[in-house]
Design goal:
The complex is a heterodimer of chains A (387) and B (1078). Chain A is 23% helix and 30% strand. Chain A has a 10-stranded mixed sheet, sandwiched between helices. In chain A, strands 1-2-8-6-4-3-9 form a 7-stranded mixed barrel. Chain B is an alpha/beta fold and 1078 residues long. Chain B contains 36 helices and 38 strands. In chain B, the strands form 7 sheets. A 7-stranded antiparallel sheet of chain B has the order 14-13-10-11-12-15-16, with helices on both faces. The longest helix of chain B is centred in the first third of the chain and has 18 residues. The radius of gyration of chain B is 29 Å and the shape is globular. The chains are: A alpha/beta (387), B alpha/beta (1078). At the A-B interface, helix 3, strand 15 and strand 16 of A face strand 11, helix 9 and helix 16 of B.
Chain lengths: 387, 1078
């Protein structure tokens, strides 16, 4: 129990009083909960949490500190971290610093010692809520309530703009060998390649581990800003195209959806994850809608219709694809077993597939890692030069 | 794939008696399997030798066999029942080993029985160290580095490759694994390896990397036929590698791994499942992780449900055994619904938003001479699990759940030097947790403590936080109290801490009052498998001091049942059986049942046994909170304290004082039965004889008491329950020795001195009283004579050697006692019969250990009937007005942990030491007794040598036994005195020297295999050495040993029956339902 008294005030007037940690400041955002038992560092650095305050349901957070490897982007992205208890002592052979210090430096506030289960149940019942957090004593609960109520919300906002890279860059880092994942089922046999196929990835808030997994499959990886046009990229003669995960409302991303439409027409193999999946669905004419409280965790069961089994997947999204609006050439390949939402699709007449969940895990189980291998296979089958 | 339709009947093998390492968890898993498979429409044939289990209740299976768990008996059962399949994975290692043996003996092939849930090769692979290592190596997984050396030079070079000490060495094929151990220095290495090379018959020594001090983790995993794989729970051992996981304090989920590190273990667990070839079912995979490099080594895997899987199920709400049984018959995990959320499926990984701590409970005080340090061999007899929002709260709750006289985490009990303290921290032992507190009091820093204990520093820091909180509560202000309660401090612990700062001592009730003033109250959270992501429909609850409350008591009529807490010697599965039956019976009556317990192994803590489950410590404070919360809504009829053994009974008076209605017999009556003076007055009033007795506060008083009573006497300290420190004293020298050794005798703690009834027969009677009448459930005659604790004595139902007049008197005394004590519910009376004289030893107006055994033997479920009586039904309404008859003979035999505690004298005495029980039954006593011995692990021989060495008092009784053994074809051996006595009577006997005498002795004869049966009765404590050595050796060589004359006589009857070879098997469902005694 160090740190200042902190207040978290929800837009419906609910007040949580706890202890501040990390940055001493005021933050406003949308509150979601995440049920991962481990992986707070990955969660904090996942750009998809832009604009959101994340309540971790696991009570002890910060136990293993922060290390230099387990990052999904260069910096913390979430607006605030909400935990039951933050560890004051770090224990890990890989840790280089403590969670509170790191958050303080990044300007991200945290609140601990609140009943996170109560907050979680509140969100489960009421849906995602807006909230304001004060860790520096500058605002009282009434003022915070006003802030929370005035928060414009994430709907219709282009948050990708805030997280995408400023300029294209090449990515070379592969998954280090001690961490090479083991997926469910049999992995496809690797194929000999004469040259490395090129994949171009739109950075809508891309997680590093997607890039590591693509690179580990033998791809040469180029990352481009979200606003990069289809024509620009197709001029690079890519063997594969990738649309990444990212924050916020897919409905606000007309420019990316338009790009996706052209990419689908290009007949170059296209793979999308999470927001990328939603964008592809939109490009195909489907609509997306906001879930009550989203899927944020590492234990979501997804039925893989082709494999005939269930994969335990890592997920982080608030929006989902409406099944009804999809055209006939779309095959639903994956369903969520908990709420029967669409988890994956592919086109029957074009080399396009996408999943709502995160096959790159990080955090979470590696069951679905084979999708990256399947992407390579798809690329090779379409591009004789590399086969 | 959906349910298989090509099999209809399934054989399930239970794990047998409770022993160290195999306890109630296999009753829990067996019950889940039976229930799930029957619900899926399969015919279930169940075999288990343990009558105290819920799984052997006749309604749990279609055919229930309480028979020996041996290949010949199982073959008889298979021959009769012709099951299509055998599910071997829910009965512990016993079930698995038997399946392997049945396959090896060709039985499974002969009768076309298919193994489901585990393949034969997988079971063999998981058991064989070398095969396992090779299999996982193929999948790129690591085992500890190990090498075989045939010369010292070679060994040294391997040691260099390993790179650091300690190093583990094991000479190949030495007797009993001698010479194996952990080496800490190069000098020691040279000496021990050289010795090993000399002693090993093949001249080789295994040099292995030692994992001592590595972090230890377990993953509980499941797989189905579609290759769906889930990790149910990760478990982190607080005790580093080197302590058996059953003896380790464990924490779920793992707290000190990053996601990458945890997912790596998950991936490896998946590969281990593939390598071992486990296609369906639950498994446990154990890992060691180097604390500084993160290197991962796979230690072992169990392709079955286990103690850890029971813990994981209770910790998460994910019913591993149930789903393991269902995937074994073809279901896939995504076809099974999660009962708790009702909308999600079994193919998922639980997320939990609390911390679970499991702490073992040991019974070293029962076994003098046993090393109390902990190591690779499990020694604990039970465990408590606790759930808290933080590790701190869970640790505090776990410690008070243990019932070891601690109300939370605190310092070591006595004074200790710094050197001794360091020893206690370095050597794993049961007090290590408390040594950490003492070390913090001395301001030892965390790094030092981490180095000494091997505990991860994260956990030590959590402990340090508790220590700091304890320091801060001096003010009793609202804020510090609230914080302490959030960290799991109990009121009585806080009272102690506050008393340090006050002139007036604080009591638990004072703290409660201050809390009431500040409105500091616990709330209850649900265990829901999903960290609140989905709504949960099963009220499985634990307390915290967070804001949210999910208890939501209903409007219904309700009863709270208090369980027994962690298993210990004298209080185990029998009481859980009773609690579960109470819950079932009262639900039948339309009550909502609310179970409170903290033992993760049990059926009572299954989330669907009772209407509601509180996984909480059984203390006055914790129970009172639950009662108050539940009483806030609906109609609370009261609390049942008589079914969980001593634990809830000890709470009765305080709870009543706190205004809690106690159901059944009143605490006043319970007290009366336990108060020696008041109870003797009552007996005098009823004109029921009891052994003469007195009270002594010093040696002089003791001698004076003995003057009036006469030797021998039974002596015991007044403040110790359960026969602890009790002894039978034959003369003044013994008495003086006892009093000096005990050193517990004082004006405050007087000594009880009771007349010992020599050569008496003990009898247990279980009965039910409804206030109008007493109906006897069963009369059990002990096989061992008086002086052996009733829990350790074999007994037989019906009594086979009591006269009609004695039986009449037993019945009449029992009835009058029940009425006089105003018993409402169960009661147990212990008698001693000397000649035709009937003495009352004690009355316990509560459920006894023998209730399940009597119920299995008579087919009358006493615990259920008595529970209904407590809620106002009459015996007449319930249809039990006559004592049930018994069809054939049912022998209960105790199972003792000698194999785990070598070096302990195996002589039976007034102190209970058995961990479990078995039941043998047959139309005749001989076969029933023979079965019971086989079930208890020491089958009677049918031929060979019989060694008799008995004390003078027993020689006359021993003669007919010897004669009969001779007639049955046994060669007789005896030590001098006994041999001469037999020879004088004309028997042919080979004389052998006593242990300790010059030359070849009885011990060599035993080692050489000339002895197949030992009859040894001890003399006083002074001449026990010879006997103790014989008994120890007999235990090591697994030679059946009988230490009382009545037991020896029973054995002879059993041997005669075995020679007749007419033993058969019979299912419980096939008994003629008991007819009343005319």
């Amino acid at each position: 129990m160090s740190g200042q008294r902190a207040h978290l005030v929800l837009s419906d007037g609910t007040v949580f009083v706890g202890q501040g940690f990390g940055a001493e400041t005021v933050a406003v955002g949308e509150v979601v909960f995440n049920t991962c038992l481990t992986g707070y560092q990955e969660v904090i650095t996942d750009p998809s949490y832009q604009g959101q305050m994340v309540c971790m349901t696991t009570p002890h957070i910060g136990n293993t500190g922060i290390n230099k490897d387990d990052i999904e982007s260069a910096r913390p992205h979430l607006t605030a971290l909400i935990v039951r208890e933050v560890s004051r002592h770090v224990s890990s052979w890989r840790a280089t610093r403590s969670l509170p210090d790191w958050l303080a430096e990044a300007g991200v506030p945290g609140i601990s010692d609140i009943d996170t289960r109560l907050l979680t149940r509140h969100i489960r019942e009421q849906g995602v809520v807006h909230a304001a957090l004060c860790t520096d004593g500058s605002l009282n609960p009434d003022q915070l309530l006003a802030r929370a109520r005035n928060f414009e919300g994430l709907e219709g906002r282009d948050l990708v703009r805030e997280v995408t890279c400023a300029a294209p860059y090449a990515w070379a880092e592969t998954t280090a060998s001690p961490w090479e994942p083991v997926a469910s089922g049999e992995m496809p046999e690797p194929v000999e390649m004469e040259r490395q196929p090129l994949v171009v990835a739109w950075d809508l808030g891309i997680k590093y581990n997607i890039l590591r997994r693509l690179a580990s499959q033998g791809f040469r990886v180029e990352v481009v800003p979200a606003s990069t046009s289809a024509a620009e990229v197709l001029a690079m003669k890519p063997d594969g195209l990738f649309l990444s995960n990212g924050p916020g409302d897919p409905g606000a991303l007309h420019y990316v959806t338009e790009t996706a439409r052209q990419l689908i027409e290009s007949n170059v193999p296209l793979f999308g994850i999470c927001l990328g999946h939603q964008i592809i669905a939109q490009a195909l004419g489907a609509e997306t809608y906001k879930l009550k409280f989203g899927h944020h965790g590492g234990n979501q069961p997804v039925s893989d219709l082709a494999a005939g089994n269930v994969q335990i997947t890592s997920q982080n999204h608030n929006y989902s694809v409406l099944h009804d609006g999809l055209p006939d050439n779309v095959e639903i390949t994956h369903w969520n077993l908990n709420d029967k939402t669409v988890e994956g699709l592919r086109l029957t007449d074009k080399p396009v597939f996408s999943v709502q969940y995160h096959p790159e895990a990080s955090p979470g189980p590696h069951d679905a890692d084979r999708l990256f291998a399947e992407f390579v296979q798809l690329v090779q089958s379409r591009s004789p030069a590399t086969g | 794939m959906p349910r298989r339709t090509d099999i209809e009947s399934i054989l399930i093998i239970g794990s047998g008696p409770i022993v160290i390492g195999q306890a109630c968890e296999f009753d829990y898993s067996g019950v889940q399997a039976c229930k799930a498979l029957r619900q899926a429409g399969f015919r279930i044939i169940l075999v288990n030798s343990n009558p105290a289990t819920i799984m052997t209740d006749p309604e749990m299976a279609d055919a229930t066999y309480v028979e020996p768990l041996t290949v010949p008996y199982l073959e008889k059962i298979i021959e009769r029942e012709r099951p299509d399949a055998l599910l071997p994975t829910v009965g512990g290692q016993t079930g698995l080993n038997l399946a392997v043996d049945l396959a090896a003996a060709g039985v499974l092939d002969r009768y076309g029985v298919e193994l489901i849930g585990a393949r034969l090769e997988s079971m063999q692979l998981a058991e064989d160290r070398e095969l396992f290592k090779n299999a996982i190596t193929e999948y790129g997984l690591e085992s500890p580095h190990s090498f075989l050396a045939t010369t010292l030079e070679e060994a040294r070079s391997h040691a260099e490759t390993i790179g650091r000490f300690p190093i583990f060495i094991r000479p190949s094929f030495t007797l009993g694994g001698s010479g194996a151990g952990t080496i800490h220095t190069p000098d020691e290495f040279d000496v021990k390896v050289a010795w090993g090379l000399r002693e090993s018959p093949v001249g080789s020594v295994l040099i292995e990397e030692s994992l001592i001090g590595w972090k230890e983790f377990e993953l509980e995993v499941m797989r189905d036929g579609a290759d769906n794989f889930v990790v149910v729970c990760s478990i982190e051992n607080l005790d580093a590698m080197g302590v058996h996981t059953g003896d380790s304090i464990t924490v779920a989920p793992a707290q000190t791994l990053t996601d990458r590190e945890l997912q790596r273990l998950r991936d490896q667990a998946r590969l281990v499942m593939r390598a071992v070839g486990v296609e369906t079912g639950g498994s446990n995979v154990q890992f060691a992780v180097h604390p500084e490099t993160g290197r991962v080594v796979v230690i072992e895997m169990n392709p079955r449900v286990s103690r850890s899987s029971a813990l994981a199920s209770k910790a998460t709400g994910f019913p591993i055994a149930k789903w393991a049984a269902l995937v074994a018959v073809g279901y896939n995990l995504d076809e099974l619904t999660n009962d708790i959320t009702r909308q999600t499926v079994a193919a998922f990984e639980p997320s939990i938003d609390y911390v679970v701590v499991k702490i073992p409970r040991w019974a070293f005080e029962k076994f003098s001479g046993v090393e109390s340090s902990l190591g690779p061999q499990m020694k604990s007899v039970g465990e408590a699990m606790s759930i808290g929002r933080t590790f701190k709260a869970a640790l505090q709750k776990g410690i008070r759940s243990l019932e070891i006289g601690r109300n939370g985490w605190g310092p070591l009990a006595g004074p200790v030097t710094d050197d001794d303290l360091e020893d206690l921290l370095r050597t794993p032992n049961r007090d290590r947790l408390f040594a950490v507190y003492t070390a913090l009091e001395r301001q030892w820093d965390l790094e030092t403590l981490a180095r000494m204990t091997g505990f991860d520093i994260w956990f030590l820091d959590q402990m340090q936080q508790l220590f700091e909180t304890a320091d801060r509560v001096s003010g009793a202000d609202a804020e510090s109290l609230r914080e302490a309660k959030r960290q799991g401090f109990s009121d009585s612990q806080l009272a102690e801490l506050l008393s340090h700062h006050r002139a007036e001592p604080w009591s638990e009730v004072d703290v409660r009052e201050v809390r009431r003033q500040h409105d500091i109250r616990p709330t209850y959270h649900q265990v829901d498998t999903c960290a609140a992501e989905f709504q949960a429909f099963t009220p499985y609850l634990y307390s915290s001091y967070d804001e949210g409350d999910e208890a939501l008591p209903t409007e219904r009529r309700k009863v709270v049942i208090l369980g027994g807490g962690p298993n210990r010697i004298g209080q185990g599965i029998e009481f859980d059986y009773c609690c579960v039956h109470a819950s079932f019976a009262l639900q039948e009556m339309g009550y909502e049942t609310i179970m409170v317990n903290c033992n993760p192994e049990t059926v009572s803590t299954d989330y669907d046994t009772s209407t509601r489950l509180y996984f909480e410590p059984l203390t006055r404070e914790d129970v009172l909170h639950i009662v108050q919360r539940e009483a806030a809504n609906g109609d609370l009829a009261g609390v049942i304290v008589q079914y969980g053994g001593q634990t809830p009974l000890n709470l009765a008076t305080d709870l009543e004082r706190d205004g809690v209605p106690i159901l059944g017999t009143s605490p006043t009556s319970i007290d009366l039965a336990e108060d020696r003076d008041r109870f003797s007055d009552l007996l005098a009033e009823l004109d029921i004889p009891a052994p003469a007795h007195g009270l002594a506060r010093n040696l002089e008083q003791a001698l004076a008491v003995v003057d009036t009573i006469g030797y021998p006497v039974v002596v015991r300290p007044s403040f110790v329950l359960g026969g602890r420190a009790m002894a039978i004293v034959h003369d003044e020298v013994d008495l003086k020795t006892y009093i000096h050794a005990a050193a517990q005798v004082s004006p405050h703690h007087p000594l009880y001195v009771d007349q010992f009834l020599n050569a008496a027969i003990e009898v247990d009677v279980d009965a039910i009283c409804d206030g109008r009448q007493v109906v006897i459930g069963g009369i059990m005659q002990h096989v061992e004579g008086a002086g052996v604790h009733s829990g350790d004595s074999a007994c037989v139902l019906p009594p086979h050697r009591l006269s009609a007049s004695v039986l009449d008197r037993l019945r009449s005394h029992t009835r009058r006692l029940g009425m006089a004590l105003h018993v409402r519910g169960l009661m147990n009376v212990q008698y001693a019969i000397q000649g035709e004289q009937v003495y009352v030893l004690e009355v316990n107006p509560r459920a006894s250990r023998t209730v399940p055994y009597v119920s299995k033997a008579t087919g009358v479920q006493l615990a259920k009937i008595a529970a209904k009586v407590m809620l106002g039904s009459t015996l007449e309404e319930l249809g039990l007005t006559e004592e049930p008859t018994v069809n054939g003979f049912f022998v209960k035999e105790a199972v003792l942990p000698w194999k785990k505690f070598t070096g302990v004298d195996t002589i039976l005495g007034p102190e209970m030491r058995s961990t479990g029980e078995v039941m043998g039954h047959a139309p005749d006593f001989g076969n029933a007794f023979a079965k019971s011995q086989e079930q208890a692990g020491s089958p009677l021989p049918v031929r060979g040598g019989a060694l008799l060495t008995v004390n003078d008092q027993d020689k006359t009784d021993a003669l007919p036994i010897a004669r009969e053994l001779h007639e049955l074809g046994f060669r007789l051996l005896a030590t001098r005195g006994t041999a001469e006595f037999f020879r004088a009577a004309g028997l042919e006997v080979r004389k052998v020297r006593k242990a300790g005498e010059e030359g070849r002795t009885v011990l060599e004869a035993m080692e050489e295999g000339q002895v197949d049966l030992v009859v040894n009765t001890p003399k006083g404590p002074r001449s026990r050495r010879h006997g103790a050595r014989i008994r120890a050796l007999a235990t090591r060589l697994a030679i059946p040993i009988l230490t009382t004359m009545p037991a020896a006589a029973a054995a002879v009857t059993g041997i005669r029956a075995l020679q007749a070879q007419n033993a058969d098997v019979r299912s419980l469902q096939n008994y003629a339902v008991a007819e009343p005694v005319p």
